[in-house]
Amino acid sequence: MNGKIIRDETLWIAGNKFVNAESLFFQGFQPDVIVDFGDDKDPGRKRPLIVPGFIDLQINGYFGHDFADTHNLEAGLTEVAKGLLQYGVTSFLPTVVTSLPETYANVLPIIASQRGPKKGQAEILGAHCEGPFLNPAKKELIM
Description:
Layout: E1 10-14, E2 17-19, H1 21-24, E3 33-36, E4 54-59, E5 61-62, E6 65-66, H2 73-84, E7 89-96, H3 101-113, E8 123-124, E9 128-129
Parallel strand pairs: 4-7, 7-8, 7-9
Antiparallel strand pairs: 1-2, 1-3, 5-6
């Protein structure tokens, strides 16, 4: 759509992608979803709003889950990925807060195993790592 404002049109969605209704209509194509934007003759009418999803680049945990904790991390990632959709977040980077090196060694493979699109969930794109990339001479500031 390239940022086009759609008015007085009908939008067809097939396979989670916008499709060109004009070229497919006469072929008998049936979309999965049809969104009717109506026309401008009724300016008070509420119309649907379709916008890109949010991408959360740093989320340390949510819904009681901490991504730096291996205890039930897979289940926690799934619960967070499902829960974020209600807020318009369609993908995210679970963040591992500044931790000991062994924490990264334990949690990053689990996060990596959960990457990719899953039905009904925000997509895990990778991981955001905070530390342990600290200047050893200034470590007292974070301890």
